[in-house]
Amino acid sequence: MTAADFRKTDFVLLQGKLQNYNSSSKVARSFCASCGSHVSYMSEDFPNNIEIFVGTFDDPGLFPTELHTWTSHKPSWVSICDDLPQHAED
User: Fold this and answer.
1) 33-to-13, 21, 27 alpha-carbon distances in Å
2) 68 φψ region: left (φ > 0), alpha (ψ -120 to 50), beta (else)
3) What digits encode the pLDDT tens for the residues 29-45?
4) Mean pLDDT of the 49-78 span
5) Over 80: is that where the pLDDT of 1 sits?
6) Torsion of CA 34, 39, 45, 46, to 10 degrees
7) Distance between CA 39 and CA 56 in Å, rounded?
8) pTM
9) What is the structure's pLDDT at 70?
10) Half-sphere exposure of 44 (CA within 13 A, CB side)
């Protein structure tokens, strides 16, 4: 999945309503209350940040990729074909 990381204070939901789900003791995820689409990820390890899944944006091209994380977990058939920084973990 591809996510864009924002400061929580910079994130504004323009329409719809989110439903939060605590998927673990430190992580909350949000979903569209109408259709169930996965919208965000928030971790207590980074309390000021929110990751928004790029597929929920009207124009995902506004947020170009800057780096790749968790590359140690990518499927073997995924090829990263750019020169951006890669991090095996977070």
Assistant:
1) 13, 11, 18
2) beta
3) 999 999 999 999 999 99
4) 89
5) no
6) -120
7) 6
8) 0.76
9) 86
10) 6
